[in-house]
Amino acid sequence: xxxxxxxxxxxxxxxxxxxxxxxxxxxxxxxxxxxxxxxxxxxxxxxxxxxxxxxxxxxxxxxxxxxxxxxxxxxxxxxxxxxxxxxxxxxxxxxxxxxxxxxxxxxxxxxxxxxxxxxxxxxxxxxxxxxxxxxxxxxxxxxxxxxxxxxxxxxxxxxxxxxxxxxxxxxxxxxxxxxxxxxxxxxxxxxxxxxxxxxxxxxxxxxxxxxxxxxxxxxxxxxxxxxxxxxxxxxxxxxxxxxxxxxxxxxxxxxxxxxxxxxxxxxxxxxxxxxxxxxxxxxxxxxxxxxxxxxxxxxxxxxxxxxxxxxxxxxxxxxxxxxxxxxxxxxxxxxxxxxxxxxxxxxxxxxxxxxxxx
Length: 358
Prior knowledge:
Elements: H1 3-9, H2 23-29, H3 34-52, E1 58-63, H4 70-86, E2 91-96, H5 123-140, E3 144-147, H6 154-157, E4 163-166, H7 174-180, E5 187-190, H8 197-207, E6 212-216, E7 222-226, E8 233-237, H9 248-260, E9 267-270, H10 283-295, E10 301-307, E11 311-314, E12 328-329, H11 337-356
Parallel strand pairs: 1-2, 1-10, 2-3, 3-4, 4-5, 5-8, 8-9, 9-10, 11-12
Antiparallel strand pairs: 6-7
Helix pairs in contact: 4-5, 7-8, 10-11
């Protein structure tokens, strides 16, 4: 095929192509130390023990809806590390460090895709910033969690995660399910927006199986990956368009479905999204109800998710970074820092009360 012939039928909607560094180049530029790697491995093991019921603490995945401002993210991480230390007997605190945002229509797609918030889309710089933040979390001794949205970008940073999520909009995707089978960290599958727990359970089973699929190598070459399956996939209840699913009856039904499918009847609950009716101010109410269930003896709930930042609420991006309130979300609304402290304290109390019932 000549270039003229190819130009008639190929790449008709591509404006330009920009080279990315190979994953191995970025890993060499921003390496993970042996001490940091040991910390991440230990954090994953701790999460696995809680998921299995061998550790009676609660996993608390808490942090900004999405990271847009590295400086405030680091300040948040520093504060959270101290709070994690104070509550470590009852909670395993993991920072939510989300870099990619699924959009129903359009909007800011996340730090990796648009790190300067101006629409220029310097993805190479976004990947550097994301990796740098995760290394900073590991240096602080704070486990990190993120949603895995893209099928290529995990090669640049996924080894730094202690927990990963497959979201409500991608849980039905065969590509995300097989990609999850390759991830080294435990992975939570959220129920889809319409609420079907069965779909997430199917995803858990698929991710646990071996797969072969195309990917890119650390050197940036096209390869076929053969996986062994991820044995640490689990369910996350996030509510639905029809209403929340964090009440006792909904959790009991979800656990019954897990058990019927041959899975352990244990799960995480997202206090935001459908469970808070998309009102960030209701997250503490959801967490309080979950703490009550835990205190009453529930062992089905092994973790919660919260959207939290330094400053409560949210703001719109108007002119890049200009004029933004420091430490306030630019995507979903978040509870503020003081409310975060109070909410984690309530969850810790619930865990202690459950322990005392034995």
